Amino acid sequence: MTESNEPKKKEQPAVEQPKKSVGRELWEFAKVVFFALLIAIPIRYFIAQPFIVRGQSMEPSFEDKEYLIIDELTYQFRDPERGEVIVFRFPGDTSEFFIKRIIGLPGEKITVEDGKIRIYDPAQGKEFILDESYLPPSLETGPEKAYALEENKYLVLGDNRRNSSDSRIWGPLDKRFITGRAVFRAWPPSKFGLIPEVSY
Q1: In a domain, 23, yes or no
Q2: E strands along the chain, which residues?
Q3: Is residue 4 annotated as part of the catalytic site, yes or no?
Q4: Residue 121 clears pLDDT 80, i.e. is over it
């Protein structure tokens, strides 16, 4: 067996990393930022957006300074439903956003009487008292009043009936003012998660 006296060639790596210029690296970074914004901006403006609760009108369900995520997409495919918590532009000043719960639906007749809410649905010919077991038992709704909801009109109330500016004061809410429904609570950490739905 003979050995060659020729020096051994240095083995070359199978793949060689191309050297990137500073300009190329900046271009790659700019592309990443661009595509991230391309995804994030439509989500922020057309699908979901953050909302911070201000005031006490939705206590005890929602406290002041809680951070919520609002679903803006669902109502493009279906109508709002009773019990859903919605964020909307205040009809009296559309620069302001309110958060309330949907109580009455279009076409229904609502009566507030003896601290309770009675709902009559002409389509079904039925009347029932709304079971609001998610509220404190001592909390009553007032003042006594009747509402006849027209097409695309909703009766919206704050859960804190003693301290809420809602449909009892400024009337039924037109659907066109609704931004979306509250679906997720991001703050405080103790309440982090999906917002529970109510059933009647």
Answers
A1: no
A2: 48-52, 67-71, 85-90, 93-104, 109-113, 116-121, 126-129, 145-148, 153-157, 173-174, 178-187, 193-194
A3: no
A4: yes
